[in-house]
């Protein structure tokens, strides 16, 4: 049982009066975000950046999926390169030189993009802002 000072995380049903136009805007926004009206409204209340800024949640997710796919292809290439080197196939392994030259930048770009997308899909809060700032400092220090 939650104490008087601890907010409960249990969902409650609310009744909210909207004009017909406001209700339609809520339904359109929720549909565009791919969320239920309740989840969309809760996201707006929690200041989820992608919802508050009117950006497309599905576009953010598509960008994250595309970036993850690029990282998966990079991982496959690294496994193939490792296999070639184990077999002593240095000539074939040289074809991966350009990929290795840009590896750190590609991974850093993915991390920045992924963290940005994920941050925009989460509610803003003091703890998260501090964590994001610390993560950015760690990425910059690694450069």
Explained architecture:
This protein has 143 residues and is an all-alpha fold. The protein has two domains: 17-46; 47-142, no CATH class. The protein is 71% helix and 0% strand. It is built from seven helices and no strands. The chain has helices at residues 20-33, 37-45, 49-52, 57-86, 90-93, 97-120, 126-142. Helix 1 (20-33) crosses helix 2, helix 4 (57-86) packs antiparallel against helix 6 (97-120) and helix 6 packs antiparallel against helix 7 (126-142). The chain starts with 19 loop residues before the first helix and ends with a helix. The relative contact order is 0.09.
Based on the model shown, name its key terms.
0% strand; mainly alpha; 7 helices; 143 residues; disordered N terminus
Helix and strand pattern: HHHHHHH
Number of domains: 2
Average predicted local confidence, pLDDT: 76
Oligomer: single chain
Poorly predicted spans: 1-6, 126-135
Strand content: under 5%
Distance N terminus to C terminus? Answer: 48 Å
Compute the number of helices: 7
Give the radius of gyration: 22 Å
Main beta sheet = none
- Gross morphology: rod-shaped
Compact description:
Helices cover 71% and strands 0% of the residues. By secondary structure, the protein is mostly helical.
